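Q: Structure tokens for this one, please.
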Amino acid sequence: MSEQEPAVDQQPVFSIEKLYVKDLSLEVPHAPRVFLENGEPQVDMRVATASEKLEDEFYNVTVTVTVTAKMADERVMFLNEVAQSGIFRIANIPDEDIQLLLAVAAPNILFPYARETVSSTVTRAGFPPVLLAPINFEAMYQQSQHQEVGNA
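A: Here is the predicted structure, written as tokens:
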């Protein structure tokens, strides 16, 4: 029985310890006049990820989504930024795989929460919901790796 205990301790671990909204902001600079405007706004979305090691086995990952909607004359209808974070436990995983988990797997978990927060916040501000398309975090990670190699 004691021979099995070390094997259990060596099992790979990737678990969610806590999900939380780290930062949330909404600006509607031209309210209330913006609500009298007609036409479809131009919506721009930007996504960034960041991670940091908190202590042994614990990492904090943040996905920041910034959504800007502009009218035809370039005036901002609204600017919404959500920083959705999570604390993840990663243990018994090779170091070369940890970065992939932090850059791809964790953001894939966090993004649906950020997307829902954006939609809810924009709706509460009096605008139609913004439905953000899924993000390919693996492609973002590979692109950043290619840029690092190119810069080296």
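A few notes: The beta strands are 13-27, 42-55, 58-70, 76-91. The chain has one domain: 12-128.
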